[in-house]
Input
Amino acid sequence: MIERPHFIFFTNLADFQFELLRKNPPLASALQSLETCLLLVSLNRYPSALASCAMALESAWKAASKKGPEKNDNFAEILGDINATLPKEAPSFDFKNFRILRNNIVHFGYTPKDDDLAAKLIFSIGLPAFFLYIQSHPELHIDFISSLDPDLFDHLNVVIKINGGDATSKNISAVNSSLILRHWIKRSLINETMWQDDALNQHNLSGLIEFEVKEELRKMIHDGWELCEDFRCPVCDQVQLVVQLDSAEIEKGLISATKGHCLNCDLNFQPGGNYLLNYFINRNLGVEEKEKILKNYGVK
Ligand SMILES: [Zn+2]
Output
């Protein structure tokens, strides 16, 4: 029996999809190259992540067009063909800068100066093109909503959305826009090997110690930061994200955070413009919860 390819994030593939992967090997390469891209993103290796993203697109195209390994097509022509086969109502992608940077990275090299451009091109061009191409191509039959981890799919969509359209108005770099995504990916990998914690938990020891340490830390942060509130963390889903609210924004009736730290998973937002943090805080807060917070600070 042929072994199935192992996936880290495509955790919900059905048997018939594994059968499709077996019949069409470049499709498995495409999905695994996408996973490699995400792993490299989580480690801040954006140029290498961009090269993996380009590989994912090329393999997806090979799978869709049923090309054999012996034929080496020009990457520019492949990207042109991907654009040509996208649904008519979808906007076509401007692959020029993506292709030029990919060629430089693969055939020459890169410097730290390339990080943010590579991140920008991954999130605004590479990933959305890959998702749309695979999802809409009649030969490929991979549905990301059902096959990809749903939390990861959500975080990817948020990063793609932030980097699409008028991204400059959000005042956030492409690298910073992926902070939560990176933390989610790294944490999901740690969770796979947390058997030691499970063993300790059976004796109820680690939970007790952990609780006391977290409460001590919470007290320290609440004592040190002004206008402190606890919110639900977008990575670990616990109400352990302590944030400092912006007093000037509170007076205007807006909930806006200047910095934050999750006591449970160590997701950390440094002081400064925190578009990403505020996006999740406001998305998760109900109208009544917002009013309650504002009322606590004397704003109606
Ligand atoms: Zn957390």
